[in-house]
Amino acid sequence: MIFGRVKSLDAILATAEKKSLHRSLGAFQLTMLGVGAVIGTGIFVLTAQAAQKAGPGMMLSFIIAGFVCAVAALCYAEMSAMVPVSGSAYTYSYAVMGELVAWMVGWALILEYAIAAGAVSVGWSGYFIGWLNTSFQIQIPLALVRGPFDGGFINLPAMLIAAIVTALLVKGTKESATVNAVLVAIKILALSLFVILTIPVIKTGQFTPFAPLGFAGISGAAASIFFAYVGFDAVSTAAEETKNPQRNMPIGLIGSLAICTVFYMLVAAGVIGTVGAQPVFGPGGAALSPGTPELSQACAAIHENAVVCSKEALAWTLKSVGYPFIGWLVGAAAIIALPSVILMMMFGQTRIFFVMSRDGLLPEFFSRVHPRWHTPHVITLLTGVFVTLFAAFFPVGLLADVSNSGTLFAFAAVSIAVVVLRHTDPNRARPFRTPLVHGIAALSIIGCIYLFYSLDIVTKSLFFGWAAIGLVVYYAYSRSRSHVGRGLSEEHGGDAGIPPLPVPPID
After folding, report:
1. Per-residue pLDDT tens digits for 320-363
2. What are 145's strand-pairing partners?
3. How far apart are CA 341 and CA 228, in angstroms?
4. Which domains does the chain carry?
5. Which of the ends of the chain has fewer CB neighbours closer than 10 A, N or C?
6. Residues annotated as region Disordered (predicted)?
């Protein structure tokens, strides 16, 4: 039965209450956690990808993607406040729609977190190489800093940063936790400088033609730009470590999204209005896809003199409008701050794997904790290997789109779960209630389907192929070993032993 093997919500909450993690996170910390996880490669790098797909019309793309994320955030807020336990969309689905749906959501979250970490690693690489060139006039062959789909052979800097973050997570995240707020401040300062310097010199003529590739281009860019907003759901994985989650979780989720949306709109306007954001076309006026050898060749023909060709879009824009030193600073800020996003994405991945392993859906050794460092070293190393390989061989645009496909599936599942639970358990206490829940959830689901449909055929094919592999793994291994299926849910429903979130308490 598709919706069988529901993991009792009361059992989840009761066990979590008995074996809960230390609650130390407040609303400010959650908001900063969300901003830290959201602001990253999406705005620092994917602005160029969006410009190639939509031109100045990417302004609408940011609005569309932000709207879909906002209605999904409202659904997340109700679930995370009502079910303040670890596991995010996976746990919510398990409690409401059953084990198979929960497994598919957890399987899709691998696309969200692990591949997103790879995408951010590639984004970091672009800024690092640009910074080396600007600061020391060091030219590294393209074959060593781009993957085969992007005109190179292997992206060594992206591999390096992914490996460093993996090692840090294996050893322990306390050291990283103490600087998380500082890194968030650096990113916000860098974006603020960009806005302050570019907004006053905007030229309205740069906004025409507004949609050179039509609304289809705007939709395609929205599906990619969605990556710039994901990460706010990582806040929900911290529910069990949150003080007064009924109040603080919604504030953290919606607050972080609101802050990021304001920055994104201002930054996009700054890029378009100063240096322009028209796509680069191939022979015969053919539209070229981001992250392809054809686009790399076309950019080489114009000496990379377009924002869509840049691997460090914001720094390139500032240098082009006469602020080379500030551009250097923005590049340095990206280099310093983006690893925190990689860390949060990889941490979120290990958290999902850890909970799935404790439920019996993945091998038990995945949830082993290192005796000295008290981290889930096995699954962290495995995740790190895959993230490193993703970063080495694939362009940021493709990785972002594939990550988005998994995220959209998870968001839609949470939106469905909110409505289902309103009908199946209407009397349960809901500290935060999604307003106009049926309309909001419907908009979220429709929005997720619309953005998924707007992804290119390669990305959609990869998603369905990944889902098919997930079904094979579930029926070949996970179903027979599930703790719920074996009647062991009470013994394994808690989150005892999960390493704490890498954010220091603020009293």
Report:
1. 888 888 888 888 888 888 887 888 788 878 878 888 887 888 88
2. 155
3. 11
4. 26-492 (1.20.1740.10)
5. C
6. 488-507
